[in-house]
């Protein structure tokens, strides 16, 4: 049975880059969200066993999404993919329950390692 994966990023180019970095043989159904509100809607609709989440988005940023998930959907696996590499941002991401923080631009090999580590591949 395929996993539901949501890619939440306000940049269409970034969402496309994440899609390209995913393993070709990974059994998933991919959904996309352009902002935090759409990401939470995808979660609430059951479209996000795994959520790839940007931090800087309109309407609701990644930190707000993580805060909501921590309080309402603790089972969602969140991998933050962001250009905001400040140590404070990374520490907060982990405090809010993200599994991993990956830096943009995303490296496909690094993503594959994380997915193996999580037991998703």
UniProtKB/TrEMBL annotation:
**Positions carrying 4-aspartylphosphate:** 54
Report whether Cell membrane shows up as a keyword of the record. no
Q: According to the lineage, what is the superkingdom?
A: Bacteria
Name the InterPro entries for this protein: Bact_response_regulator, CheY-like_superfamily, Sig_transdc_resp-reg_receiver
> What keywords were assigned to this record?
Phosphoprotein
Q: Which PROSITE patterns match?
A: RESPONSE_REGULATORY
- Claim: Phosphoprotein is one of the keywords in the record: yes
GO biological process, alphabetically ordered: phosphorelay signal transduction system
**Domain Response regulatory spans what residues?**
4-119
Q: Which residues form a coiled coil?
A: none
Name the PANTHER family on file.
PROTEIN-GLUTAMATE METHYLESTERASE_PROTEIN-GLUTAMINE GLUTAMINASE 1, STRESS RESPONSE REGULATOR PROTEIN 1
Instruction: Report the protein name in the record.
Output: Response regulator receiver domain-containing protein
Write down the species: Alkalimonas amylolytica
């Amino acid at each position: 049975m395929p996993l539901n994966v949501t890619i939440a990023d306000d940049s269409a180019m970034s969402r496309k880059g994440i899609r390209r970095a995913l393993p070709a043989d990974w059994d998933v159904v991919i959904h996309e969200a352009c902002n935090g509100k759409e990401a939470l809607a995808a979660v609430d609709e059951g479209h996000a066993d795994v959520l790839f989440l940007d931090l800087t988005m309109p309407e609701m940023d990644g930190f707000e999404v993580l805060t909501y998930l921590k309080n309402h959907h603790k089972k969602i696996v969140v991998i933050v993919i962001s250009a905001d590499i400040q140590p404070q941002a990374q520490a907060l991401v982990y405090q809010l329950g993200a599994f991993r923080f990956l830096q943009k631009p995303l490296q496909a090999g690094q993503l594959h390692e994380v997915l193996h580590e999580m037991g998703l591949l």
